Every structure is written in C-alpha cells, then in structure tokens.
TrEMBL record:
It comes from the Bacteria. The gene is infB. Belongs to the TRAFAC class translation factor GTPase superfamily. Classic translation factor GTPase family. IF-2 subfamily. This is Translation initiation factor IF-2. GTP binds at residues 87-94, 133-137, 187-190. The lineage of its organism: Bacteria, Pseudomonadati, Pseudomonadota, Gammaproteobacteria, Enterobacterales. It comes from Buchnera aphidicola subsp. Schlechtendalia chinensis. Residues 78-247 form the Tr-type G domain.
Length: 370
C-alpha cells in the first residue's frame, strides 16, 4: 500500500531526493527517485531525517472539529423559502426576477444601487422570500451535482405564446428528481397570442396539474412586462411555503451553502452564502469547502454591513483563505487552528484525487508539519 514517491516526500520535507536515497541506503533499502514508499517506510525515513510526522486519518480531524460544534437547536423557527426561477430560454425568467427586484426592494436603502450577489430577498406582507438570482438551470444543476439541495420551490416560467419547450421539460425533470414543488407562472399574458389554457393542457403529460383538476400545482398567470399577476405569484409562493412548513434552528453554530464566489482585488475572496441552520456572526471561524477563515465582515444583499446572518437570507462573507465553489458547505467551527488543519488536509485530498485521476500512483495520506 504505497502512498508517496521518494520525490514527493523530498518535496514535502524540502530536501533533495538524493538525500532520501542516501538515507535509505544507510537503512538498507535501495530506492529510486520515482519509487513509491508505504506509509510506515515514509514515516521512518522522515523521522530519521529529523522531521516530525503527523498522520492525518481521513475522519479523525474532521470528526474532532465537528464534534466540538455547538449545535444547540433550542430555537426552531419558520424560515423563508428559497425560490429558483426556471424555464425555457426567452420565456421571461430574467424579466421576472428583474421586475420583482426593482419593484419590491427598497433600493434607496442601499444608496440607489442594489448590488448583484447571486440572490436577493424581498418582504411581502411581513414575510420574506429569497430568490436565487441566477436564472437558468446552471446554478440548480451545479448544486445538485454536488449533492447540495438549496431550493425549496421552483417557479416554472412558461411563455403563454410559446408553450412547453425542451428546457421547460428539463426544468420539470430537475425539480421532480429533487422533489421540489413546482409553481407554474404562465408568462407573457399581455400578448395577444397568449394561450394560457393550452400551456395547462400541455403540462398534464408531465404530471403538473392545477388544483381544480385534481393536482397539487399552483398556477398563476403573469406578465413580467406589465407586472400583472406578480403580486398574486408572490402570494402563491408564500402559500406554497406555508404548506412546506420550512423550519430551522436559529440558535447554535451556523451551517450554510455557497451560491456564488469571486476574488475581490482589494478585499480578497468573497462568497455569497445562504445560511441553512443557526446564526452566522462576525468573527466566527468557518470551514468552507477546501477553505477556512475568520469572518471579517458580513454584508447583506443591499451591500450593508451586518453583524449576523440568519437562515435563508443571502449574505456576502469576507475573510476566507481562498475562493470556494458554488455548492460548497459553510460550517462554523470552534477552533481556527484546527480549521486550518482541516482545510490543508482537504486541499491535499483534493490534489490527490486530481492526481490519481491522471496517474496510477496514489499520493500520501501523510504530510509534514514543519
Ligand atoms: P429568459 O431567457 O427566460 O431570461 O427571458 P427574458 O427575461 O430575457 O425575456 C425574453 C424576452 O421576452 C425579452 O425580450 C423580454 O422583454 C420578453 N418578455 C419577458 N416577459 C414578458 C412578458 O410578460 N410580456 C412580453 N410581452 N414580453 C416579455
Ligand atoms: Mg435570462
């Protein structure tokens, strides 16, 4: 069970491969630079050469850090729904998201401009709805492929002058596979050639049926151009959300998901996240995919700095060691030093995986702490 080549071990210890070869010869082993060593041998050589070896077992580190999290779930509350808009190209997804954003967010609060952070939330009748601001299927598919489920409700936009199209069907399949309820927004009803009833009929084939026909899908006729029906759509989202009884704890250390990330030249890595459980506080230590960090600042979707982030409200976080990937889990942990170790460990595992995909040898599951 060989885990590391002589050359790799030399790199980790910052010595020349020839030094290892010489050392091993003294110990009675003849090896070449590309030969791989097993764990015991690698440890022996490293220690013989004066290095302290820490062996990280796959689960131990992570288990330790996860075990020491405060996951008190005393305070369970209803949380806002997270809504994804899906549908065929040109059926009006962007127009709908824009209409809702422009009419429902008090952009004056942010000094005129509403930042684009991949998601936004609005308040309707004192209740909050969060929209994933990434129209199309990309975000949804990316999340799903990474095993992350973030969407509570899919609003399926179907243009009433065009009907069910390939991407409409694809969206239905994604939502159904994920068991996410589908709310149908029949769009462009302002158009003279609009045929909303025809859309309803076309959808029967895909098991999408309005309540009056014995199904359980909510249908709303809208126009993303004139705004007609959009208040009704928002009310329906709240209704659907109530039926889902979305609850989570707001006490204890937060967990969440990354929905977007980028590198800001001045501020460093920035991630937009949605908290799923608990409350995130400024100064918290997080593990985030392969990265870790101490939360330096939290900003809401209006660009305002806040001290906390609660479930389902999108926020930007600053302070990560690198740029995470959409779908990465964010987990608040208790210990920065240990978080760093886990992050290093995860990065190593990640590189190993990439390497083993390319070549047959397996890189170590040991590494040096110098
Ligand atoms: P997306 O590809 O699904 O994001 O679709 P867009 O929002 O970009 O819309 C495609 C086109 O349809 C644009 O020219 C929109 O102005 C137009 N459109 C969207 N919604 C409506 C609507 O309700 N009525 C009318 N008449 N046009 C619309
Ligand atoms: Mg679009």
């Amino acid at each position: 069970n060989n885990v590391i080549t002589v050359c790799e071990l030399a790199n980790k210890m910052a010595v020349k491969s020839s030094e290892i070869i010489k050392k091993m010869m003294k110990l009675g082993y003849i090896v070449t630079i590309n030969q791989s060593l097993d764990k015991d041998m690698a440890q022996l050589v490293a220690e013989e050469m004066g290095h302290k070896v820490t062996i990280y077992h796959e689960d131990k580190l992570e288990q330790d850090i996860m075990k020491n999290r405060d996951i008190s779930n005393e305070r369970v509350q209803i949380r806002p729904p997270i809504v994804a808009i899906m549908g065929h190209v040109d059926h009006g997804k962007t127009s709908l998201l824009d209409y809702i954003r422009l009419t429902k967010i008090a952009s004056q609060e942010a000094g005129g401009i509403t930042q684009h952070i991949g998601a936004y939330h609005i308040e309707v009748r004192k209740k909050i709805i969060t929209f994933l601001d990434t129209p199309g299927h990309a975000a949804f598919t990316a999340m799903r492929s990474r095993g992350a489920q973030i969407t509570d409700i899919v609003v399926l936009v179907v243009a009433s002058d065009d009907g069910v199209k390939p991407q409409t069907i694809e969206a239905i399949q994604h939502a159904q596979a994920a068991s996410v309820p589908i709310l149908v927004a029949i769009n462009k009803i302002d158009k003279p050639n609009s045929e909303p009833e025809k859309v309803k009929n076309e959808l029967i084939k895909y098991n999408i049926l309005p309540e009056e026909w014995g199904g359980d899908n909510i249908f709303v006729n809208i126009s993303a151009k004139t705004g007609e029906g959009i208040d009704n759509l928002l009310k329906s989202i709240l209704l659907q959300s109530e039926m889902l009884e979305l609850k989570t704890t707001i006490s204890g250390m937060a967990t969440g998901l990354v929905i977007e990330s980028f590198l800001d030249k001045g501020k460093g890595p920035i991630a937009t996240i949605l908290i799923q459980e608990g409350t995130l506080k400024k100064g918290d230590i997080v593990l985030c995919g392969l990265e870790y960090g101490k939360i330096r600042a939290i900003k809401n979707s209006l660009g305002k700095e806040v001290q906390f982030a609660s479930p389902s409200i999108p926020v930007e976080i600053l302070g990560l060691s690198g740029i995470p990937i959409a779908g990465d889990k964010v987990v608040v942990v208790g210990d920065e030093k240990k978080a760093k170790e886990v992050s290093i460990y995860r990065q190593m595992k990640f590189r190993e995986k990439k390497l083993t995909k390319k070549s047959s040898f397996k890189l170590s599951n040991i590494f040096e702490k110098i």
